[in-house]
Amino acid sequence: MIIPKIVIVKTIKGQKYADFIAKEINLAGHYCGITDIKNLREYLDKNKCSSKTTLIHSRTAHPNYTSKVLGGLEERGYKIINSPAAIRLTSDKFNSCIYAIKKDIPCAETIKIDKKEAIPFVKEKVEIWGRAVVKPMISQGQGEFCFKFDNADISQLKEINKIPTQELVVQKFVDYLKLNRVIVIGYGALEKAVFWDEPNQGWKCSVCLNTKIQCYKNPPGDLLEFAENVAKKFKAEISFVDVFSTKDGYVLNEINTACSLIIHERISRYNISKKIADYLLSFV
């Protein structure tokens, strides 16, 4: 039996980008396995993996279940990238913002609230802030359940009830010019894989599953430094840092560790998955 050198933990519903990384690892002459978080421990035992033979790379994130499973394996000695602590922090949109502010990273003012209390609370915040954003505490729906409210649409607050989670995040709206995504691997930004989008009609931008994102030819050096600093402070070795460009400088939107980058590779024509594979193989 060939024991996997690296095991990639995919999301339960998707596998495509995990396949991209696994292909690069296999082409380099090492066996890479893929499983999901629910079957991870069984997969490791079945394939006779151990902390001495196998590294785990998680491409799924959740502050509770995922980080708990990975944390148990870390206690058994497994090297896990990203660490369970980094996954737990980055996948919790409230605590990640609070942590960022404590680490002197500019971030929107953020408050956690129960959905049943949200409508009067958000109405009050709109009166103070002018504009407020409401979204799930854990990302869902690729921005579908992210809402902005101001005095002009305060009557639409019932839209909050569409959010499929009980715990919500309320943020002061960041008046931004661009939303950027910087791919950071081993705490170093990939200069050839920096992307942006800007608001056109409406207020939302996306640098995730957006086929119209733009790739910088010469990304701003201070943007790369900002993203690298965020990754280092969050101890997120492989991360995708989303940053607002504002008239007053950069503001962290969020840091992710489990996004598909298929669109980003196609638009940039840059093999990001090979860079991820090379970094993982540096520990083998």
TrEMBL record:
The record's GO molecular-function terms, alphabetically, read: ATP binding; metal ion binding; ribosomal S6-glutamic acid ligase activity
Tell me, what is an example of a GO biological process annotation in this record?
Answer: SOS response
Cited InterPro entries: ATP-grasp (IPR011761), ATP-grasp_RimK-type (IPR013651)
Q: Which superkingdom heads the taxonomic lineage of this protein's source?
A: Bacteria
Which keywords does UniProt give here?
A: ATP-binding, Nucleotide-binding
Q: Where is the ATP-grasp domain?
A: 97-281
Q: Name one Pfam family in it.
A: RimK
Q: Which GO terms of the cellular component aspect does the record hold?
A: cytoplasm
Gene3D superfamilies linked to this entry: 3.40.50.20, ATP-grasp fold, B domain
- Record PANTHER family: BETA-CITRYLGLUTAMATE SYNTHASE B-RELATED, RIBOSOMAL PROTEIN S6 MODIFICATION PROTEIN
The molecule here is called ATP-grasp domain-containing protein
**Organism of provenance:** Candidatus Portnoybacteria bacterium CG_4_10_14_0_2_um_filter_43_36
| Source taxonomy | Bacteria, Candidatus Portnoyibacteriota
